[in-house]
Every structure is written in C-alpha cells, then in structure tokens.
From TrEMBL:
GO terms for biological process: defense response to bacterium; innate immune response. The lineage of its organism: Eukaryota, Metazoa, Ecdysozoa, Arthropoda, Hexapoda. InterPro entries: Attacin_C (IPR005521). It is found in: Secreted. It comes from the Eukaryota. This is Attacin C-terminal domain-containing protein. Residues 1-23 form the signal peptide. Its main location: secreted.
Length: 123
C-alpha cells in the first residue's frame, strides 16, 4: 500500500511538471530581447516586386460524344490573346465557338457559332 501510494505521488508530481511545460511552451517574454524588429508587410519601406508578364497562348478545346442510334454532338471552343498591357495586368482575349449535332433519328442540326471577348484584370 505504501509502495503504491509513493508511485502515485511521484506520478502526480511528474504530471504537474509536464502539464505546466505543455501549458507554457514559449519562453518568458521578458527574456526575449529584439533590438532590430523586422519591417511589417504594410510599412512604407517594404520592397514591392513588380508583376511578371505572363506569355499567353492560343487555346483550342473540343469535345463530343454520342452513339450511332442517337447521333453525335460536336463542339469546339477557341481563345486567342489580342492585347496585353505593358505591366501585364490588363488583357483582352477573343473567343469563338462552334457546336452541331450530327446524325441520329432527326438528322443533322444547324451549326451554332458564337464569338465574344474576355477582359481580364489581375489584382
């Protein structure tokens, strides 16, 4: 009995020391001396890195599917860069699309064409 209570007291003391170390894992703030603090992100002396121009390319996407009984759907989409500002923040792209249903019990549909533009501003 006395042997078990001795282990219980030692275990309780170790648990208190270990739990206090977990509760306060950081050093005492009074011991930390930082004479040269680092600049904040919003300070006026913060170095601003200019945007890099991104080389944009022509894009062509297509798809389709179906069966011989129901017919096939076909679609194509294109996007081409038209203009980009000197710093690369503003850009304008031209877009175009084509879609048509081919075959099946109702035959071919009329082709559907589309065109448009996309303006992009990068923050």
């Amino acid at each position: 009995m006395q042997f078990a209570s001795c282990f219980l007291l030692i275990g309780l003391a170790c648990a208190c020391v270990f739990s206090s170390a977990l509760a306060y894992p950081y050093p005492d703030p009074r011991d930390i001396v930082n004479l040269t603090p680092e600049p904040l992100a919003y300070s006026p002396n913060f170095d601003v890195v200019p945007l890099q121009r991104v080389r944009r390319q022509f894009q062509l996407n297509g798809g389709g599917g179906g069966s011989s009984k129901q017919g096939f759907d076909l679609n194509l989409n294109a996007r081409a860069p038209v203009w980009q500002s000197q710093n690369g923040r503003h850009s304008f792209d031209a877009t175009g699309s084509y879609a048509q249903h081919l075959g099946g019990p109702y035959g071919n549909s009329r082709p559907q064409f589309g065109a448009g533009g996309v303006y992009t501003y990068r923050f």
